[in-house]
Every structure is written in C-alpha cells, then in structure tokens.
C-alpha cells in the first residue's frame, strides 16, 4: 500500500511563487501604463513600466511628502542600479515592480480586471487601504512591503535627510 505524504510549502516560497505568477501578466502587457503624454526619465536599473508602477504608489503613500520634488520611481531606479552585484532584495523588488500593473494580481487579490495603475489615485488608495486591513495575509504583506519600501527610499533621499536635520 502506498501512502502519500502531504505537500508542504513554506511561506517564503509561496510568496515568491505568487509574485512570479503575478509578474507573468506584466510580461505580456508591456507598457500597460506607459502611453502618450507620460514622461519617463532616463532609467538605468528598472523598466519604464516599473517606474510608472512605483510613481502610482507614490501618489498614495507619499502624497503628503515633505520633499516636494521627490520621485519614488527614480529613487528606486537609483537604489537598484546602485548595487554593483545582485542582492536578494533586488530580485524581490523586481518581482514586486510588476504587481501594480498585473491583471492577474488584480484578479487574485481584488477580484477585479482593472490593475492598480489604471485606477484613479482615490480608487488606488481605497484598494491599498483595503489590503492593509484584509484578512488575507498576502494582501497585508504586500501592502506593508510597498509602504516600507516607499518610506525607506524617501528616508534615503538627501533632501529628506536635510528636512529632518541629519544633513546641513
């Protein structure tokens, strides 16, 4: 008689698998949020789509930023490009960069066919705040990661460091 052992999957492997699945739609939907009229600065570490994805998060997480000219997409590009060798954080960030424009992520997390970047700033804020209080751990985790990355990149900006008094 053959006995089957239960299949187990660690939380870390599950999250990476889910993020890779979400990234699949971003591969087939290049430029989903890059259209006429959107200006993209010169980037060295991330794609134009990833830049606009993080700019859309800036409208929610950093809308009241004390640094008026701060650009979350450029800060992320500098962070990723600034590392001379691949780091574990970079691979996770590359997966997360596609999440706001992924239709698969919108379907899986919100039962919607509209990716987050296609929403207005108010609707995007409502969706992210619903993730914050969700009973699904994956939503809360992605919300926390996006928020922490946003504030980390803001806090590493020279203008912000001057604002809080670390630099003169």
Task: Characterize the largest beta sheet: strand count, sense, and whether it forms a barrel.
Answer: none
- Mean pLDDT across all amino acids: 80
What's the total helix number?
Answer: 8
Shape: globular
Kindly describe this structure.
With 168 residues, this protein is mainly alpha-helical. Helix content is 58%, strand content 0%. It contains eight helices and no strands. It has helices spanning 11-28, 48-61, 72-81, 88-97, 103-110, 121-132, 137-155, 158-164. It is globular.
Question: Summed up, what is this model?
Answer:
This protein has 168 residues and is an all-alpha fold. It is 58% helix and 0% strand.
Features:
single chain, 168 residues, mainly alpha, 8 helices, globular
What is the fold's blueprint, element by element?
Layout lengths: L10 H18 L19 H14 L10 H10 L6 H10 L5 H8 L10 H12 L4 H19 L2 H7 L4
Helix pairs in contact: 1-4, 2-3, 2-6, 6-7
